[in-house]
Amino acid sequence: MRALQTGAVLRTRAVRTRAPRTIRSTVRSPRIAAICTAFTVCLTFAPAPAPAHPQTASAGAAPQSSNWPSFRGPGALGVAYGSELPETFSGADGINLAWRTEIPGMGHASPVVWGDRVYVTSAVSEMPPQRYLAELPDTRDSIVDPTTHRWVVMALDKRSGEILWERTAAEGVPRTGRLRKGSFNNSTPATNGTHVVALFGSQGLFCYDSEGDLLWHVDLGVLDAGWFFDPTFQWGTASSPIIEGDQVIVQVDVFGGAFIAAFDLADGTERWRTPRDEVSSWATPTAVVTPERIEIVTNGGRAIRAYDAATGEQLWMLSPSSEIAVSTPIFVGGLIFVGSGYLPTQPFYAVRPGGSGDISLEAGRRASRQVAWSVPDGGPLVATPIVVGNYLFVLSRDGTLSCFDAGTGLAMYRDKIVPEEVSSSGPLDVAVIEGAPPEAPKPVTFSASPVASNGRLYIASDRGDIYVIEAGPFLRLISTNAVGEAVFATPAISDGLLLVRAQHHLFAFSRGGRGGAR
Fold first, then answer.
1. CA-CA distance, 246 to 316, in Å (whole number)?
2. pLDDT tens sequence across 377-391
3. Which of 7, 160, 361, 388 has its CA 20 to 30 A from that of 234?
4. What number of other Cβ atoms are within 10 A of residue 154's Cβ?
5. Hey, which CATH number is domain 2-509, 3.30.1360.120, 2.130.10.10, 3.60.21.70, 1.10.3720.10?
6. What residues contact 252, with CB distance under 8 A and at least 6 apart?
7. Could you give the residue ranges of the DSSP H alpha helices within 82-170?
8. Which residue has the higher pLDDT, 4 or 319?
9. Which residues have CB under 8 Å from 438's CB, separation 6+?
């Protein structure tokens, strides 16, 4: 990280909330027209339209507004019902800020919540505090850091932000490099209220109880993940653990030796391990629960696969996939939504569970008995898709938001959250590098996945703006809100709190919040 600290200073400034902007976007290019044509073909095979709240069909009940137990909440759905979040807020000015707590070190891992506890992990270097430069262009460059780090797990009080306990899980020099815009702590922890599980890549898998006592630790070896084309580019791991019943399941897609495994939640005993014919990938697995069985669905660089949760046996596979897979599958309204967006292959699928064997589509087809609908170039590079009501939203790295009818795949719109004329300069910019030319392009990029509550999407940019958008068939920007720090982690939602893990602090925003800093 020291290579990034070259004297350029990241300066942030508050952003005024802009008036709501509505873009009544229709198909605007031949490429999108082709997608819509494909969707028309898909309608022959599509299921009935999704229910008003299709999330309720995935596991029998809507996500609770209190617990947010793993990456992007229950089932990675990203939706909390009943949480009245603020539509305008600011970390710098304290607008609707309930509290702000400093988090040591660096991490792209998201906070998780159970009851009145918030759990956060981080990688803390012995060197001075490090920072992200959100304006750095995306590259495949990696960084090897020879300094000693501590990998820590922290518990905070949800209402006050007070740190209740902090534990050091591991200490030493990182065993691999990381992506230049990444961190050594990318995997979000998981909890069921009594257990807190943290995956720190090559440092291992750790399980604590809710009071911070270490229950068990499993050494998974050196996990070297990076560019499929050249293994000298080390990017680090990012897939997060999930808790399914009495098991912890991890997807470990690394150079030479990819696997998926289940460990006993009580004592860390390995239940099963299944090798995967995969290149490095960074997606989190999802448990798809149906009356017939539980499928563990994974997104990989070579194929999308499902495994039996009890035995690890592979149930079905679907290809093609992008050679870089980051987005997590979600199960909503009886369909598994999954895709990836690394050029030139960017497929996106809506898949019915219960498949067997190879369910890949025949050449020229966009649907089948197992695949409800698909598009050849609609997959996201990083962000996990989200379904709100009848609509599916897919966020691209450059801030392009695509909206589809979730049940049929019909395209509603595809547009930039931040217009081109604003993204390079103007009042929406929140960070500049001192000494840079005043008109130098400052691209707006997005790493965090969207979350939603009460018909509103909350989408965080790398530079620390959170865009509140109406979750409907037209792109309507309600407000733009400055956190005041870079944001790469996906926010969490719990009991009216929007929890944002930023570069140096964990922020809690709420309606009428008037908290302070810790």
1. 24
2. 888 888 999 999 999
3. 7
4. 21
5. 2.130.10.10
6. 220, 223, 237, 239, 258, 259, 260, 261
7. none
8. 319
9. none
